[in-house]
Design brief:
Number of domains: 1
Strand order of the largest sheet: 1-2-4-8-6
Structural class: alpha+beta
Radius of gyration: 16 Å
CATH class: Mainly Beta
């Protein structure tokens, strides 16, 4: 019974946060994307990226929702969520973001640094968030200047 209540609380937390960000961002063709449940034992982290595509010079937000092993939102902590990307040209405002009421957030920018005479094709970047052994990721499309 207690385990079921914890699962329900955890599910309601993620639903409420998802609805909040859906209302905040509105409807668009380039809607935010969410990660699946994280890998790793113990803590759970889920990511939301504000857009599916980033054009050259564009920016986007990355939000991490962090819960403890019991499914409760992690309170304000000194430990940080660490953000990274598979694409070296993605720069985060804060690669380590503090957690406030279970949420850590940063912004990132991307600039196409390919040669304009021989431009790179659009590429997929993996955005990664980690916290105390839990890892989650989402993929976005980086659209180069030539496309």
């Amino acid at each position: 019974m207690i385990k079921n209540m914890k699962k329900i609380k955890k599910s309601l937390f993620f639903i409420a946060v998802s609805i909040f960000f859906a209302l905040l961002t509105g409807c668009s063709d380039n809607a935010p994307i969410y990660s699946d449940a994280s890998s790793g034992a113990g803590y759970n982290i889920r990511l939301m990226v504000s857009t599916q595509e980033v054009a050259n010079g564009g920016s986007f937000s990355v939000t991490a929702y962090v819960t403890d092993p019991d499914g409760n939102a992690v309170p304000d902590e000194e430990d940080c969520v660490v953000f990274s990307s598979s694409a070296s040209d993605v720069d985060f405002d804060d690669e380590e973001a503090d957690i406030k009421s279970g949420i850590a957030k940063t912004f990132a920018t991307w600039e196409d640094k390919s040669d304009s005479e021989d431009p790179d094709a659009p590429t997929i970047a993996t955005i990664i968030g980690t916290y105390k052994g839990a890892t989650s990721y989402v993929q976005i499309l980086l659209v180069t200047e030539s496309f």
